[in-house]
Design brief:
Blueprint (H helix, E strand, L loop, with lengths): L2 H27 L7 E4 L2 E3 L1 H17 L4 E4 L3 H10 L4 E9 L1 H5 L6 E8 L2 E9 L4 E6 L4 E3 L2 E2 L12 E4 L7 H13 L3 E3 L4 H9 L5 E7 L1 H13 L3 E2 L7 H4 L1 E6 L4 H7 L4
Parallel strand pairs: 3-4, 10-11, 10-12
Antiparallel strand pairs: 1-2, 4-5, 5-6, 6-7, 7-8, 8-9, 12-14, 13-14
Bound molecules: D-MYO-inositol-1-phosphate and calcium ion (2 copies).
The site of one calcium ion has 6 residues, from strand 4.
Length: 268
């Protein structure tokens, strides 16, 4: 993909995520009327997630018909599709990240769109419609919040700020508890926002000094990973093994925190 092709996709994705944000926000304002379905333990979804994903899927398919797509709400079918076609460009999308917050009226959720090209994240965009904040990055060109450059926190120790910690019932609680016990023993502090994607954007913006989650999916984190790398932070190799299709742990933050945060994780 040459730089013009990438810029065209970035510009398109920027206006698309704002449009998707506006649709999601309309649903948010009338969320009492939404029927909630349960996908698993503490894992909810509504028509809002599906409609926003459909909008993004349709618009990308029209504009870039050869590109592949992986969205949370139809992930199994999407994975089978791009695997079968050996697709080089794959858009990886979470239509609403922080769905439990969204459905409970907490204005801290977002939309996440990333573009993977031959296994490398080239574009990452995260939009928080309730606060009108758009985090966006292109590989090699830095990370932006509402078009202004952002950078990772200047943290030398876990005592220098707050670390986001995510958890889902896809894994056993001890993974998370082990990390928390060590972090707190060292005088650190944690935040669990309920939106992994937005937490990663906050790491890129220097609001959090790091983030850990024992299992996260690609649609939750690819855009955030690029934002953090472009903002000068460190992220472990999330895509190793079959991370794209099956997810992996994620550990990231300010570079000086890498050894100590790695030590807090339960050995695999
Ligand atoms: C979830 C959120 C949550 C994280 C989970 C995700 P969803 O995504 O990002 O913070 O801990 O791993 O599944 O269901 O709100 O899109
Ligand atoms: Ca998600
Ligand atoms: Ca979601």
């Amino acid at each position: 993909m040459n730089s013009n092709e990438r810029q065209a996709r970035f510009d398109f994705a920027k206006s698309l995520i704002l449009k998707a944000g506006s649709l999601a926000h309309d649903y948010f304002e009338r969320r009492e009327a939404l029927t909630i379905e349960h996908k698993g333990l503490q894992d909810v979804v509504s028509i809002a997630d599906k409609a926003v994903e459909q909008l993004i899927r349709d618009e990308l398919a029209t504009a870039f018909s050869k590109d592949g797509f992986l969205g949370e709400e139809d992930a199994e079918r999407d994975i089978a599709n791009f695997s079968a076609n050996a697709t080089s460009h794959i858009w990886v999308v979470d239509p609403i990240d922080g769905t439990a917050l969204f459905l409970n009226g907490i204005p801290s959720w977002c939309i996440s769109i990333a573009l993977l090209v031959d296994g490398e994240i080239q574009l990452g965009l995260i939009y928080d419609p309730c606060n009108n904040e758009l985090f966006a990055a292109q590989k090699g060109l830095g990370a932006l919040l509402n078009d202004k450059p952002i950078s990772i926190a200047d943290a030398q120790s876990v005592k220098d700020g707050m670390i986001g910690v995510g958890f889902s019932h896809r894994v056993k609680p001890n993974t998370c508890l082990h990390f928390l016990e060590h972090l707190l023993n060292d005088g650190g502090m944690y935040v669990r926002s309920g939106s992994g994607a937005l937490s990663l954007a906050y790491v890129a913006a220097g609001r959090l000094i790091g983030y850990y989650e024992p299992h996260i999916n690609a649609w939750d984190c690819l855009a955030g990973i690029l934002l953090i790398e472009e903002a000068g932070g460190w992220v472990d190799d999330f895509l190793s093994g079959n991370g794209l299709a099956q997810g992996n742990p994620i550990l990231c933050g300010a570079k000086p925190l890498k050894p100590v945060m790695s030590d807090y994780c339960l050995p695999e």
